[in-house]
Write a structure and sequence with these properties.
The chain is mainly α. It has one domain. The protein starts with a helix and ends with a helix.
Length: 82
């Protein structure tokens, strides 16, 4: 672990990217959600949605991906208890 606020931020980003990689490698539903997200972002770019619409898309996508990761964590915790 590195020191200072910059080090904490680097560590946080590193762990977040590791979690995304874990989701991509081991969880098919996560991969599906990411492919759908890519399609939604491409459609938004293609149809030139407004700034407020981009904010809505990004917030909704973040909620969906966050829920998917929370679900994955809960499933992992339940499997560990069995």
């Amino acid at each position: 672990m590195t020191g200072g606020k910059a080090g904490i931020m680097k560590d946080s980003i590193k762990y977040a990217l590791e979690g995304i990689g874990e989701g991509w490698r081991n969880h098919p539903n996560f991969r599906r959600q990411m492919v759908i997200l890519a399609a939604v972002l491409a459609a938004g770019w293609r149809y030139r949605i407004s700034g407020s619409e981009w904010i809505a898309v990004i917030l909704a996508s973040g909620l969906v991906m966050g829920a998917e990761m929370a679900n994955t964590a809960i499933e992992a915790a339940v499997v560990c208890q069995d």
